[in-house]
Amino acid sequence: xxxxxxxxxxxxxxxxxxxxxxxxxxxxxxxxxxxxxxxxxxxxxxxxxxxxxxxxxxxxxxxxxxxxxxxxxxxxxxxxxxxxxxxxxxxxxxxxxxxxxxxxxxxxxxxxxxxxxxxxxxxxxxxxxxxxxxxxxxxxxxxxxxxxxxxxxxxxxxxxxxxxxxxxxxxxxxxxxxxxxxxxxxxxxxxxxxxxxxxxxxxxxxxxxxxxxxxxxxxxxxxxxxxxxxxxxxxxxxxxxxxxxxxxxxxxxxxxxxxxxxxxxxxxxxxxxxxxxxxxxxxxxxxxxxxxxxxxxxxxxxxxxxxxxxxxxxxxxxxxxxxxxxxxxxxxxxxxxxxxxxxxxxxxxxxxxxxxxxxxxxxxxxxxxxxxxxxxxxxxxxxxxxxxx
Length: 389
Description:
This is Glycosyltransferase RgtA/B/C/D-like domain-containing protein. Keywords: Membrane, Transmembrane, Transmembrane helix. It comes from Nibribacter koreensis. With about 400 residues, the protein is an all-alpha fold. The protein has helices at about 1-10, 15-35, 35-45, 60-75, 80-105, 110-120, 120-125, 130-150, 155-175, 180-200, 205-225, 235-250, 270-285, 295-320, 330-345, 350-355, 360-370, 375-389. Helix 5 (about 80-105) runs parallel beside helix 8 (about 130-150) and helix 13 (about 270-285) packs across helix 15 (about 330-345). The longest helix has 27 residues, at about 295-320. It is globular and about 65 Å long. The model has no long low-confidence stretch (mean pLDDT about 85).
């Protein structure tokens, strides 16, 4: 239903948007590539197509998404709505798979994960339908779920099986959201290596020593990437952040609420300085009192709920004078959220776009924040009282 609603909202209220642009482009591509089976095969495997895809680079995630969408259109007789259903089901499948793994291994996160990944309105809405975010959510959740399975796999065959699934999910995540897939894959691979070493060496069994080893791997990897002149140096990061920030700022109406960083520049120190502000604003802005259209007001109402969840978690932590225990897996996800939030929020000052882009990351944050709050204690007290009555 969410995917169908997204298509309707974009068509009737928002004037089309990316989702209907992909529909038109895919129809044009199929006109050019379905004259014979050989034409379509050349398009899929050799990127040979006419003028329909000139606006996308061959290595871009949009080019890849049109390929996948064209296959769904062939299956559904060019139906936008049925393709929307299939993509929504893939996103839901990934979320459900991750929820089942969490239910098995992390009981305290069962209800928070259910609410965050399968129930929270904007997350469900923006990760459904004919959208790259449907693939992002599904691939990301499968990647997390396969990581949990790999940690607990017994025997070589089971490890190879989940290792292959991990690789497939990594590949799909990489193809549709490269800049989020890189930190996710690196963080999870390091986590898997740390857990492997901890099983071999008893001295590494404590959470603190695992964390120190994991951070050490991240530092060495960052230094190595810098000296090898890869695409992930601080200079490259700053360049792309500023390029996108400037482009989106120029297109955003000054009458709309937006993230404004007048002193942001491409230096790594500037990015680090502005990163906390960007993450906080991504979570809680626009505020309800800011002058804005109805769409922004709806975002603001949901942000009030998020702010309330954060405040309740902070009150619980202060009351108990400590955080509730967070397993190593969830610490890794928290680090991924913080990294991904910076990569999404800094280059995206427009809250309309940011509300969509933050959706997969927001699910991680909400699951952790809800687990830190008093909700589960209240729920157990309520259910216990109901049984007693």
